[in-house]
Q: What sequence folds into this?
C-alpha cells in the first residue's frame, strides 16, 4: 500500500507539471495566433511542439480512460455491497450473498461468497471504513473522469489552434506571393508607360 501511495503521489506531481507545460504552451500558441496576422511568422519548431503535445495528450487521455474504467469496478462493487448491507437491515432473517466471481476477483472454479449471515459481514456493514472507502472510490472515479474530460477539451482546443496556425501560415505565404505579383505587374505597367512616353517624345 505504501508503494502504491507513493506511485499516486508521483503521478499527481507529474501531471501537475504537465498541466503547467500545457498552460505555458497554450499561452504561447494563443499569442502566436494573435500576432500571426501582423508581422509574426510561425516557426517549424513551434508547429512540431504543438504536434508533439497533441500526440502526448492523446496517449495520456487513453491511459486515463483505462484508469477511469479501472476505478469504476470498485465503485460498482462497493455499491452492490452497500445495497446488500442496507437490505439486510431492512429485511430481517434474509440471507443475502455477494458472489465475488462476477467481478473477476476470483476464478470461476472457486466459489467465494460473502453472505449476510456471518458476523464478519455484519461488522463490515457497521464499520465506518466501508463508507469512507466507498466515498473515496467515488472521488477517484470522478477525478479520473474529470481528467479525461479535461484532456478531450484540451485536445480539441490544441488541434483547432494547430489548424489555425497551419492555415494562417498558408494564408501568409499566399499574401506574400500575391503582393510580389502585384508589385511585378505594377513595375511592368510603369515600365511600359515610360516606354510609351519615350516613344511619343
A:
Amino acid at each position: 500500500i505504501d508503494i502504491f501511495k507513493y506511485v499516486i503521489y508521483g503521478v499527481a506531481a507529474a501531471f501537475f507539471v504537465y498541466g503547467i507545460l500545457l498552460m505555458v504552451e497554450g499561452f504561447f500558441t494563443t499569442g502566436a495566433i494573435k500576432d500571426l496576422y501582423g508581422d509574426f511568422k510561425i516557426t517549424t519548431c513551434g508547429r512540431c511542439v504543438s504536434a508533439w503535445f497533441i500526440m502526448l495528450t492523446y496517449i495520456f487521455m487513453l491511459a486515463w480512460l483505462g484508469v477511469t474504467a479501472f476505478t469504476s469496478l470498485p465503485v460498482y462493487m462497493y455499491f452492490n455491497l452497500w445495497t446488500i448491507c442496507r437490505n439486510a437491515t431492512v429485511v430481517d432473517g434474509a440471507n443475502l450473498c455477494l458472489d465475488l466471481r462476477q467481478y473477476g476477483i476470483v476464478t470461476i472454479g472457486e466459489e467465494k461468497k460473502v453472505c449476510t449471515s456471518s458476523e464478519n459481514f455484519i461488522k463490515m456493514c457497521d464499520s465506518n471504513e466501508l463508507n469512507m472507502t466507498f466515498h473515496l472510490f467515488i472521488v477517484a472515479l470522478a477525478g479520473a473522469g474529470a481528467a479525461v474530460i479535461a484532456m478531450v477539451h484540451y485536445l480539441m482546443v490544441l488541434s483547432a489552434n494547430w489548424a489555425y496556425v497551419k492555415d494562417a501560415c498558408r494564408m501568409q505565404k499566399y499574401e506574400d506571393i500575391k503582393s510580389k505579383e502585384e508589385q511585378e505587374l505594377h513595375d511592368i505597367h510603369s515600365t511600359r508607360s515610360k516606354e510609351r512616353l519615350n516613344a511619343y517624345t
User: Anything to note?
Assistant: The longest helix spans residues 128-200. The beta strands are 97-99, 113-115. The chain has a mean pLDDT of 75. The chain has one domain: 1-196.
